Queue: 4 jobs
Job 1
Amino acid sequence: MGCPGNVDDNAACSDSWDQYNYWYLSWGDPAAFATPEIYYNVPPGTPINAEQWGEISDYGAAYQSDGIVFTAPFSQHERDSDSLTAAQAWDDLETYSGQSDFRTTWSYQPPTSKSPGS
């Protein structure tokens, strides 16, 4: 994607898009589900994909009043064993977006209102 991993002010990305474009397609559009691909660390130890998505979410929070709530990251470990596993992808995304893996933090809360007539 080529977006900077250290700024959140609608910075330009290397493909003529900017952070707004990625924010809108992944979260701003009502039909969107945020599922970024977090698959590698380049250089080793630097989770560039996660940093980029964290900054795009920060852009949304700062300029669109709506940071991204990530559904899940994609990884490609099954295809490329040198890339991140699904758990590593979540860890990196959590670190740079501040969002925890929903599978371990979200729990169903039943409705508290009573149905009519009860």
Job 2
Amino acid sequence: MVNKTELKPATFVGSSLRDLRELPRSARREAGFQLDKIQQGEDPADWKPMETVGSGACGIRVRDESGAFRLIICREISGSGLRAPRVSEKDAENGKDGLSSRQGSI
């Protein structure tokens, strides 16, 4: 585990920080907690690898009473940080979140 003083830096790409800030409060808090875990070198609680997005990419699932959300995180190849290129709300009907429309920004 990385010492709290040695947190890996996080870089938000495109509108991802704004999108994260627009999540409902409880989902935003949970997302922040999961990002902190990654910055400390730990795995998030509910995630899956997303190799179709890119090497080192993972989708973090966050749920609250208003719905389900996904954060796409790319761990830097050098291990020195992480990028958060995508935050989205999952579509309750089909379980998709429209990732393909913004994969180019990763």
Job 3
Amino acid sequence: MTVPGEISMTLDRPGQALDHPVPGQLPRCPHGARELIAEDDKVVGRFTCSATHQGAWLGQAPTGRRFERVDEVWILGFRDGRIVHVWSLEDTLWRLRQLGLA
């Protein structure tokens, strides 16, 4: 599965897409759920994410800096109880500013 923004991931288990959007680059990026709405075969979630920049991301070398409470909205599509589609919108500018990259 490919997610826009140069991110590619394989989903091996339900819910894995929420574990970490950028494996190996922003380790331990817990998503604090602020709101979840489910209807039919879709779930929409509003989250915040905090992590330390420890790997190359968006062409930038690791800074070792931490970003806090970056807002994200995810829409998850389900089929047969599994996530089959992920769409997300994130406040990347706020994340980059906190990392000193913008």
Job 4
Amino acid sequence: MFGVFCCHTDPGRLCAGWVATIDLDESLALRVNHARVDLDAVRAYRSPVPLHPSGQAAADHGRAGLAGPPSPATVAKGAQVARMIARRGRRGDVR
């Protein structure tokens, strides 16, 4: 789907944290994908766990522990995950 932020554990689904923190009325990504996204379900979603107040706060928290550029092993793992996601997309597993 164009422009939406998908889940890191299930790339065919929207990221729950993203859904919970974006301004749904201002999201171009959701408007562009209106035929593929259940907007009523997105609007009704409430996270069962506390979330950061914004995407920027979540990103800042995630980057806080990074010491520098990723290691070669991290880069290799990222490439492996990207290949897995590409294979899933070719099989039509996107929900």
